[in-house]
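Saturday, quiet lab. Running sequence design on the structure tokens for the scaffold JK sent over.
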């Protein structure tokens, strides 16, 4: 067997690696993408809102939960989610609205701020929304009065104005932690 027929797999892999590195484009740096805001779009009744992406750690179908006696009517119960106990709060009920019936579109936005781990029931999650800084507006999003204390800003996209709902402000409110009756 001659030396010319010996294949060096390490040399071939090194050559492929060098070729790939020479043609890589790379990801945009954070500074290059900083003019884009992202959030989770959701619906509460007729209101379409967005919550900052960093505020929501998970989105769930409404889990089975156990009723907790002597709690506010807006506390749907407590659920076991992968070994962690998740208090499930109906956001409509918390805001003083009628508790809606659960549908196949009902979802839970899971939050975790400063040790407050909770699931907020919303009527529907509409997906991710990305807005440019230029779309930030002072326009009124036309939402129900109960939601206004939790709005921090708005974005205009076409004919729609999306209110930015602050889940962090909601969790920091003293009433949110007063679940006992």
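Result came back. Writing it out in full:
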């Amino acid at each position: 067997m001659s030396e010319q027929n010996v294949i060096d797999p390490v040399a071939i892999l090194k050559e492929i690696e060098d070729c790939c590195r020479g043609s890589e484009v790379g990801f945009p740096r954070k500074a290059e993408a900083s003019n884009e805001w992202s959030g989770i779009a959701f619906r509460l009744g007729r209101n379409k809102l967005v919550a900052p992406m960093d505020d929501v750690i998970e989105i769930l179908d409404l889990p089975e939960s156990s009723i907790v006696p002597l709690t506010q009517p807006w506390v749907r119960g407590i659920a076991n989610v992968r070994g962690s106990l998740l208090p499930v709060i109906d956001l409509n009920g918390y805001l003083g609205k009628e508790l809606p019936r659960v549908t196949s579109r009902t979802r839970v936005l899971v939050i975790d701020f400063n040790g407050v781990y909770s699931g907020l029931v919303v009527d529907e999650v509409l997906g991710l929304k990305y807005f440019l800084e230029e779309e930030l507006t002072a326009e009124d999003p036309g939402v129900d009065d109960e939601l206004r204390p939790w709005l921090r800003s708005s974005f205009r996209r076409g004919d729609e104005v999306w209110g930015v709902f602050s889940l962090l402000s909601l969790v920091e409110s003293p009433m949110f932690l007063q679940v006992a009756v």
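Notes for JK: The first strand starts at residue 36 and ends at 44. The first helix runs from residue 9 to 23. Ask whether to fix the surface positions before the next round.
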